[in-house]
What does this fold into?
Amino acid sequence: MQRVQHYWYNQAIAEYTSAARTVELSHWMQRLAFSPDLIRDAIRISDDEMVHAQMCFDLAKLAGSEKNLPLNNMQLILPQEYPLLGKSLLIVLVQSYCFGETAAVPLFAAMRKSASKDSVLAAYDRILQDEPRHAKFGWVALAWCCENWPQAREWLVEITPIALGRMRKAYCDHPAFDPQLSQNEIDWGVFPRELYGEILERTIATTYSQRLAYYDIPLL
Ligand SMILES: [Fe+2]
Ligand SMILES: [Fe+2]
It folds into this structure.
């Protein structure tokens, strides 16, 4: 059960991190006078991510984990990568929401497909109910930036390959589980890591490419 514990514990870390970072994103959006409906969408997303984090943490506990989250080693603060807050927000938006949340939809759908334990299916169902809205938020907020900030399109051209490179680094080249996953681990929702890259590449070739074609950014 150790790999099951690990899997859900790591997932809880990812969801909690995303909740914390989305709280900060909402604050950046407030500082930049974003449209109020988009700010409220972001606040709702951070609330969803807290629910996901709790569900995943509970699954890790159910599988026997006794660990608390390693809060001091988690990336809970958004790095301001550029002197301009708007440009820093744009790279977060593209990387984590347009790209990250969009790839999360087929990834979680594939994970849910092989799982069979009720509490695992309930967690995946809740996550899958929310993720398409999170992805949509990313693309709508990107459109808002391009409508309202004269430099946004220029920044997008610069930011896209950086964000894409980071996505590939995070998703691709994961070694397969050794020994292979047991039926019990599959029932608990553990998913073969070597398939992450394939799912990402398919999403790049479809959704990312279609959406970015609108901004004249070819990905293929
Ligand atoms: Fe989530
Ligand atoms: Fe999400």
User: Anything to note?
Assistant: Residues 2-213 form a domain with the Ferritin fold (CATH 1.20.1260). The pocket of fe (ii) ion (ligand 1) is lined by residues 15, 18, 49, 52, 127 (CB under 6 Å).
